[in-house]
Design brief:
The protein is an alpha/beta fold. 44% of the residues lie in helices and 11% in strands. Helix 13 (307-317) packs across helix 15 (338-358). The protein is globular.
């Protein structure tokens, strides 16, 4: 009898770790908000929402897989020409039954050699050329034109502008920025970065500042291996300046790099609470959406993380959405089939759920992350 009682107590305790305590049903005296609705979501549903699924060359079967899994974002990658009827294809693929909200659809439209929607979206010069040949007003108008075309195609989010400071050659295997940077001058990068951001916002597209806290002058390209940013004291007077200006101007989203920051953390920034919660949230008072750079990058794997453990560490550190697959090295493109993406989504979501069960990741952190995602997409769960 005693043995039976002990077994029952043990099972009850184990179950208590896996069951989310949900909020009471909505009543007329309780104000509805996204957070009150999210408090009734399962942990598995929340875990899926923080994932951004990569899609290589507009493969709609990958979109359908991601939608059915309930991910919060889809990122178009590759160098294929975007189909002119992308909006129609997306509408059909996203209309497939799936949990969660309609995911944010993302692409990198920076300019120069980083334009994932080539074809329907007009070609842009490199950011460095924009700053050298246009006024900030012209740069804003240029970005607005790009944003309008992105909206027409059904793409909500531009992973741009790049606010890193760089005057060297590149982008290359040793320098991720090069001509992707508006300037090595903090004030110039700030002016043009804010102008580009505002242009996208005027067109209804969510801009994402990158790569916080600044990759300009980094020791290497994090796609291929570990790299360090300039020391924190140097970032204070240079690299952080454009980000601080854009945050003050109302930036809705920031991508955090995978480089370490000497004087602040030995972890990749995307996995570091000192960078995300300390530097970005508290010091810069940023209240918007935080995305990781690709967690498939060499800087992450060589730091000892697989994709699932990196995703958990990133969310624990304060990241709201986790990206993977976007390094586009030869090995990575082989992992972007619909089947591989589905497996990766399942592994990431499972690891996040397990982390909540163990107590390592509070469910409130997931609630907060998904609330930031919904706010960026102007989604009101109470209106649904």
């Amino acid at each position: 009898m005693l043995l039976t009682l002990l077994v029952m107590i043990s099972l009850t305790a184990a179950c208590a770790k896996t069951v989310r305590v949900t909020a009471p049903s909505q009543t007329s005296t309780t104000a509805c908000s996204n957070l009150t609705v999210l408090s009734r979501w399962s942990v598995a549903r929340l875990a899926a929402e923080v994932i951004v699924a990569p899609d290589l060359d507009f493969e709609m079967s990958t979109v359908q897989v991601a939608r059915k899994a309930g991910v919060g974002g889809i990122l178009f990658l590759g160098n294929a020409v975007a189909p002119s009827d992308l909006a129609t294809q997306l509408q059909f693929a996203l209309g497939q039954t799936g949990p969660g909200t309609t995911p944010l659809v993302m692409a990198d439209e920076e300019g120069g050699g980083v334009q994932r929607l080539a074809g329907p979206v007009p070609s842009l010069p490199w950011a460095r050329t924009v700053a050298a040949t246009m006024s900030p007003v012209q740069a804003q108008a240029l970005a607005a034109g790009v944003g309008h075309e992105m909206q027409r195609l059904g793409v909500d989010v531009d992973l741009a502008p790049v606010l890193d400071l760089d005057a060297g050659p590149g982008p290359s295997a040793t320098d991720a920025d090069g001509a992707r940077s508006f300037s090595a001058d903090p004030s110039v990068a700030a002016r043009y970065g804010v102008a580009f951001m505002r242009g996208l916002q005027n067109a209804g597209v969510v801009p994402v500042l990158k790569h916080f806290p600044g990759l300009g002058g980094a020791s290497g390209n994090t796609d291929y291996g570990p790299a360090e940013t300039p020391a924190l004291a140097t970032l204070d007077s240079a690299g952080l300046v454009p980000f601080a200006a854009a945050v003050a101007a109302g930036a809705p989203a920031v991508m955090v790099s995978n480089a370490t920051v000497p004087g602040l953390t030995d972890l990749p920034a995307s996995l570091s609470p000192e960078v995300i919660e300390g530097l970005l949230r508290q010091r810069l008072d940023f209240q918007g959406l935080v995305l990781t750079d690709s967690l498939s990058a060499g800087a992450i794997t060589q730091a000892g993380y697989d994709l699932a453990s990196a995703a958990v560490a990133a969310v624990e550190a304060g990241s709201d959405m986790v990206l993977f697959g976007s390094t586009l090295t030869t090995a990575q493109t082989l992992l972007l089939s619909p089947e591989s993406v589905e497996t990766s989504i399942s592994e990431i979501a499972g690891a996040i759920v397990s982390a909540t069960r163990s107590g390592a990741l509070p469910v409130s952190r997931l609630d907060n992350a998904v609330a930031h995602i919904l706010a960026a997409g102007h989604t009101d769960l109470c209106a649904q």
